[in-house]
Structures are given as C-alpha cells and as structure tokens.
Amino acid sequence: MRSWRSDRSPCRRALRDLQTYLDGEADRDTSWRVARHLSRCEDCFGDADTIRAIKDAVARLRVAPDAGALVRLRRLLDTLPEPDAAP
Ligand SMILES: [Zn+2]
After folding, report:
1. From the CA of 46, how far away is ligand 1's center (Å)?
2. pTM for this model (two decimals)
3. 21 C-alpha to ligand 1 centroid (Å)
4. Res. 15 pLDDT band, cuts 50 70 90
C-alpha cells in the first residue's frame, strides 16, 4: 500500500522515531533529527501535536483516577446478590 507520504522518506523516518522522541527516549542524534524535521514540516508537526495531545490525555487519566467512582462502584457491588454456587 502506498501512503500519501510514501515518497517523502524524511517524513517516514521522522514518524518512525516520533513515538520514541515524544517519550523522551530517543538518543541525541535522533532527537535532533526529529526536532529539526518537525520545525520544517507542517504535516509531521501536526501529527506530533496530535500524538502529544493523546499522550497527555492518557497520562491525565492514569494520574488522576476518579476515587469517587471507585467508591460508588464498590457500593454498587455490595448491593448485588451473591452469585449462586449451583448453576
Ligand atoms: Zn514530514
């Protein structure tokens, strides 16, 4: 399958390293290369922005679990009848 960016190998390389870069786990050369590409390529910059927003949203969900929801869930489970042992 041929993607719309398949003829632009700098984009493919940048996108391949983007995840590592956004995780802060890319080495110095890779970080530099991705950052430079993002500063010059509007398409990849947009992709990076989207991925960053998704990662931020997921991180927020992990950092701040809804304690109230957990309490309500436990209360709800307490109101349920015990399951029958015999089918
Ligand atoms: Zn690009």
Report:
1. 9
2. 0.57
3. 14
4. confident
